[in-house]
Design a protein that fits this description.
Mean pLDDT of chain B: 84
CATH architecture of chain A: Alpha/alpha barrel
Strand order of the largest sheet of chain A: 1-2
Number of strands of chain A: 2
Largest sheet of chain B: 3 strands, mixed
InterPro entries (chain A): PGGT1B-like (IPR045089), Prenyltrans (IPR001330), Ptb1 (IPR026873), Terpenoid_cyclase/PrenylTrfase (IPR008930)
Keywords (chain A): Metal-binding, Phosphoprotein, Prenyltransferase, Repeat, Transferase, Zinc
Shape of chain B: globular
Catalytic activity (chain A): geranylgeranyl diphosphate + L-cysteinyl-[protein] = S-geranylgeranyl-L-cysteinyl-[protein] + diphosphate
Order of helices and strands of chain B: HEEEHHHHHHHHHHHHHHH
Strand order of the largest sheet of chain B: 1-3-2
Radius of gyration of chain B: 27 Å
Oligomer: heterodimer
Helix content of chain B: 55-70%
CATH topology of chain A: Glycosyltransferase
Number of helices of chain A: 14
Distance between the termini of chain B: 75 Å
Low-confidence stretches of chain B: 259-270, 323-352, 354-364
Structural class of chain B: mainly alpha
Low-confidence stretches of chain A: none
Number of strands of chain B: 3
Largest interface: A-B, 40 and 52 residues
Protein name (chain A): Geranylgeranyl transferase type-2 subunit beta
GO cellular component, one term (chain A): Rab-protein geranylgeranyltransferase complex
């Protein structure tokens, strides 16, 4: 390996090579039980998303019943503000990111009735700008991530028609770069996370034909490194969350076979922590619920039988979406 | 160290006050950080200033953060009243420790809106937060709001100023703000490789504060050249150059049928400066070729080459038959150039640029303009490299060739 300059990790021969589902379920079930933990306070600003990550991965592993439904519903209700939007936690300010997470969680529990749905729709609608873009909150930051959050929220509520979809599509397409990818705003660098959001957006709005699937697929499959892992941009290290952003995007555009699946699977499994349970961004690092979800979801997309089928657009169990009657487009 | 509620109260208030004092006294702090220090030393403040660096001893953080965090949230839920100064101090402490706490930044937005906090001080806090957390998305997001607020807020009219004077002062302010942002972005880019958030902010600033300003774009292109040469893995840095090139081609020589976009800058530029654009592309290709040879095996450099190739070709397609003063068909020019070189000496083909890259106005008439690379010239470039190169360079070179043939499909 002398002289290798490619930024990558090297998988150790004794890295985990089988899926340790029970350990992951135990890890998530116990996460956050010590609420005084300093680290827990540091991450409170994204708590709603953290809960969505934890619950979704538990559901994918068939262990959702280990979580406290009522406590979570009460928490979510306490996070809905007068404007209709949801905050990440009690006392924090509302934002589109946590509004989506809240709605996703309620869908997992078939409990949308617990909140004021019309108010949510009003909140999302109010964030659309003249050029079709969406602000994240009343303070006005524009990002294609928020376009995804908006349409995903409304799709789950069955209220997509409440926004100007054509304008929204126009804005997202204006963020398409020559390499087929997307950035956060027009003129921004292509990034796998933004690509996932824009691809998901185009799926939900029925506009996948506007993509250059071959071109984008090319960019995406070039994210795979010798270790088998995927990165988010050229010359970045592999990260298990990109096993989701990149893989789901490839699935949506019908080119998941352009990736070496077995090497990717090997990488994802190597990111598990055999002692604590959970997944880290790359082998040997600290685990967290975020990477645990995307590790398991990535494996599901690769066909892991021990895990429920996951929807590549919404990162939710397929059976939940079937119950709602939501089946976003995929290219073949 | 454990303490009663009131002991912790006293300690925390003291630390918050010390931090606020340190920031007020010294407007030149350029870096903050945590000092690993597991135990308090008797009666000494955990806030330490050395030269222009501000340190916070780590032992106090586990008391400090939850305390100020809870205070702020109680205020937000209207269960606690805090006066404006207390809010300034508490959010300041919080954000230096946890810059992604969106709600704290929002409280500061409200303070700016009501005039209790100056935008400049808020930008200063942001700059400090970025010295410790150069990626922090919420810090960059908040920064953009403050800048927009600054732009929209017209300074009070001074009756003694003429319109021209006022215009000049505004222009100076804008230029100063622009330079400040470029510096903040540059520092953050140095602190974290391929810092997407820093570079996308940099682009945002130019899009908002320097639209159509050719001089700014040229200066940026020029000043970034040594930086990217020293950071050949930094994909965001190279993407920034792609952005600058695109903006420059749009400002210097927009596609037929369009006028120069954006406001006219004060610098007088002809609306169609085709040779200038050709030179820019030529120099960029030269730069990336040199770097590819000097630093084999960097995907970023090959990615940049793809972008430059594509941009030049697309621009050329939008300016058909514009070969400059020499007239004639640019394709013909390319053929002539190729026939004059021998295969395997690609450098000859590329060195069609003038010797003085920035001296666009002094381009001599009659000098043949550099032509865009063709599939043919690029194949020669790739072949020239394949001999004796390492496996990484080889794989990127071959991938580039495959991309040319498959994706671009430029006829040879």
């Amino acid at each position: 390996m002398l002289g290798t300059q490619i930024k990558d990790v090297i998988l150790k021969p004794d890295a985990p090579s089988s899926l340790l589902l029970d350990k992951h379920a135990d890890y998530i079930a116990a996460y956050g039980s010590k609420k005084d933990d300093y680290e827990y306070t540091l991450s409170e600003y994204l708590r709603m998303s953290g809960i969505y990550w934890g619950l979704t991965v538990m559901d994918l592993m068939g262990q959702l019943d280990r979580m406290n439904l009522q406590e979570i519903i009460d928490f979510i209700k306490a996070c809905q503000h007068d404007c209709g939007g949801f905050s990440a936690s009690i006392g924090h300010d509302p934002h589109l990111l946590y509004t989506l997470s809240a709605v996703q969680i309620l869908c997992l529990y078939d409990s949308l009735h617990a909140i004021d749905v019309d108010k949510v729709v009003e909140y999302v609608k109010g964030l659309q700008q003249e050029d079709g873009s969406f602000a994240g909150d009343k303070w006005g930051e524009i990002d294609t991530r928020f376009s995804f959050c908006a349409v995903a929220t409304l799709a789950l509520l069955g209220k997509m028609e409440m926004i100007n979809v054509d304008r929204a599509v126009e804005f997202v397409l204006s963020c398409m770069n020559f390499d087929g990818g997307f950035g956060c705003r027009p003129g921004s660098e292509s990034h796998a996370g933004q690509i996932y959001c824009c691809t998901g957006f185009l799926s939900l709005t029925g506009q996948l034909h506007q993509l250059n699937a071959d071109l984008l697929g090319w960019w995406l499959c070039e994210r795979q490194l010798p270790s088998g892992g995927l990165n988010g941009r050229p010359e970045k290290l592999p990260d298990v969350c990109y096993s989701w952003w990149v893989l789901a995007s490839l699935k949506i555009i019908g080119r998941i076979h352009w990736i070496d699946k077995s090497r990717l699977r090997q990488f994802i499994l190597a990111c598990q922590d055999e002692e604590t349970g959970g997944f880290a961004d790359r082998p040997g690092d600290m685990v967290d619920p975020f990477h645990t979800l995307f590790g398991v979801a990535g494996l599901s997309l690769l066909g892991e039988e021990q895990v429920k089928a996951v929807n590549p657009v919404l990162c939710m169990p397929e059976d939940v979406l079937q119950r709602i009657g939501l089946q976003p487009d995929l290219l073949s | 160290m454990s303490g009663t509620g009131s002991e912790v109260d006293v300690l925390v208030q003291r630390v918050v006050r010390d931090l606020s004092t340190a920031l007020n006294r010294n407007r030149n702090i350029d870096e903050i950080g945590l000092i690993p220090c597991p135990e308090a030393r008797y009666n000494r403040s955990p806030i330490v200033m050395v030269e222009n660096k501000l340190g916070v001893e780590s032992w106090c953080v586990k008391f400090l953060l939850p305390y100020v965090h809870n205070k702020l949230l109680l205020y937000r839920q209207r269960r606690l009243w805090l006066d404006r100064q207390a809010l300034v101090d508490i959010t300041c402490t919080l954000l230096l420790l946890n810059p992604d706490l969106t709600t704290a930044w929002n409280v500061r937005k409200e303070l700016v809106e009501c005039g209790a906090l100056s935008p400049e001080r808020d930008l200063y806090l942001g700059k400090l937060a970025l010295s410790k957390s150069p990626k922090s998305p919420e810090t960059w997001i908040h920064r953009r709001w403050v800048l927009l607020h600054l732009l929209q807020k017209a300074p009070p009219a001074d009756q003694n100023q003429t319109d021209a004077e006022r215009s000049r002062l505004l222009g100076e302010q804008l230029a100063q703000t622009l330079q400040q942002e470029m510096k903040v972005c540059a520092d953050a880019a140095c602190r974290y490789p391929s810092n997407y958030n820093a570079w996308s902010h940099r682009i945002w600033v130019l899009q908002r504060l320097a639209k159509g300003n050719v001089k700014v774009f040229l200066d940026e292109l020029s000043s970034m050249r040594p930086w990217v040469s020293a950071h050949v893995s930094d994909h965001s840095g190279f993407h920034y150059r792609q952005f600058l090139l695109q903006e420059l081609t749009g400002a210097l020589a927009p596609p037929a049928g369009c006028s120069s976009n954006g406001e006219r800058s004060a610098v007088e530029e002809p609306p169609h400066d085709l040779p200038a654009v050709q030179q820019l592309f030529c120099h960029e290709l030269e730069l990336v070729s040199d770097l590819i040879r000097s630093f084999p095996g960097h995907e970023t450099l090959w990615s940049h080459r793809r972008h430059v190739f594509f941009l030049w070709h697309r621009w050329k397609e939008q300016h058909p038959g514009d070969g400059g003063d020499e007239g004639g068909d640019p394709a013909e020019g390319a053929q002539t150039r190729l026939s004059q070189t021998s295969a395997g000496v690609p450098m000859e083909v590329e060195r069609g640029c003038s010797s003085d890259p920035q001296d666009i106005k002094r381009l001599r008439r009659g000098v043949p303009l550099p032509q865009p690379p063709t599939s043919q010239t690029e194949h020669v470039f790739v072949s020239g490299l394949l001999d004796g190169c390492g496996p990484e360079q080889r794989s990127f070179a071959l991938a580039y060739r495959k991309w040319l043939d498959t994706v671009v499909g430029v006829p040879s």
